Amino acid sequence: MSILNKLTFGLLGSDSEDDQVRMVEASGATIDPDDEDGWRRLSGDSSRDLSPLSQERMRETALYLWDANLLANRIIELPLAYMLGEGVELRAGEDYQDTITRFWNDPINQMDVKLTKKVRELAIFGEQVWPTFVNTVDGHVRLGYLDPALIGTVVVDPDNAEQPIGIVTVKDRKGVALRYRVIVNGPESVFTERTQAIRQTFTDGDAFFFCVNDLSVSRRGRSDLRAPADWVDAYDQFLFGEIERYSFLRAFVWDVTLNGATPEEVKAKARTIKAPAPGAVRVHNEGETWRAESPDIKAGDTSEGARLFRNHVLGGSTIPEHWFGGGADVNRATGESMGEPTFKTFSMRQRFLKYMLESVGRYVIRQRIIAESKEPDWDDERLQVEAIFPEMTASDTTKYASALQQVVIACAAALGEGLIARETAVAMIASVAGRIGVEIDPAAELKAARKEADDSAGNDLFPPPDPDRVADPADDTAADGNTDGAAEPFPALAQ
């Protein structure tokens, strides 16, 4: 059977071609699930999302594994610690930094505390929805939270399948579903008239919608634990099996031999005999023999099997073995090189977190501007916000300090030979200085250095000669008083 048929029969709950059933469409109207108030997507009808049942199962499984499985917990928590362990700072222009600070420290928002939870749940559930509540007087913004389990449908732009425009929640006990408009930091004119009309039907407020592990044409995010879930569970079962095996290996029984006893005497002894307590004393004659018997299971060392299963999970999550207690023969040099792919993966997620926070910051400033005047353009300079993340690891500055010294010497030699421009030399020095956390703007730094040199020269009692000035013999004549142009061998002493 072809792989396509196997997948088809597996999805339909059948295992063989003999179980095929001829499908006959019942009479009636066909309803397109992508229909939403009279429109349908033009960019494609193929769904790249999990079914609602699979989406729900994924959420519950991921949450259970994060809560109960050490390996799954580390897959979620390790990136979180590296990205947010030192905190995050959101910066804006001088005129709007107070607005950002007020939003960040708001007693409801409490971003220093809640951001870690939001990012953790983004990894566990694969998506986040944050409804917003805006004060129409001063534009102050507060964030809410919508459980991903309450997402019923994510509506996308009919002209652009990768752009979500609205979220419809599942119905509550009264049969009411909320409709949130997905926030896009810009005026509604960025959408077509048809899309604008659809967005106007989402009247229950605005909300941020972020998802990870998704495709351009998928509407829902997926958990970081979806792929390794089965393997993580298998590793757990393997360890529980090993615990049971070691329990059996430690077990033993007392084998008592009664020499020359009849069957009736053996049965009578069995009814009255008791296992001795630890440290107890047994007294008997040569007709009775006691021997402790332990099981000989003939099981080999399973540590390599455990390592195989563990590394399969950790490798799929781009986490080195020695990060989960498996040091093996790893030394510092190999450990640092093995961590590079991991930090690249963490950096990708950190860039997405940077986008999330900067989107929120732009929205906060945008709401203040709207409250004070009118809707700003999407590229308004006042909306510029930057999320500052600390370095994930402490850099080894020793090698970079040595490299900086060598680069400075090489640049000085190249300048002396006239091989490079001064700004290029400063740029080379700045590139190495950036490795130790010192950011240098080459053009600005060169300008400042020249100004400092000029100021220092102006303050000298004996300034250095100007190399661009051409010597005039008349100056020498006026200085020494000789008309023949010859300088006096010794200046006259002052009286």
Number of helices: 14
Shape: flat
**How many domains, in number, for the residues?**
3
Name the beta content range.
Answer: 5-15%
Q: Mean pLDDT, nearest integer?
A: 81
Unreliably modeled segments? 1-19, 23-38, 485-495
Structural class: alpha+beta
Order of helices and strands: HHHEHHEEEEEHEHEHEHHEHHHH
> How helical, in percent, are the residues?
40-55%
Number of strands: 10
Q: Largest beta sheet, briefly?
A: 6 strands, mixed
Computed CA radius of gyration, to the nearest angstrom: 38 Å
The largest sheet has its strands arranged as 3-2-7-6-5-4
User: What separation lies between the terminal Cα atoms?
Assistant: 119 Å
What features would you describe in this structure?
This protein is of the alpha+beta class and 495 residues long. It folds into 3 domains: 37-228 and 320-325 and 334-393, no CATH class; 237-259 and 288-316, no CATH class; 395-455, no CATH class. It has 14 helices and 10 strands. The strands form 3 sheets. The protein has a 6-stranded mixed sheet with strand order 3-2-7-6-5-4. A two-stranded antiparallel sheet has the order 1-10.
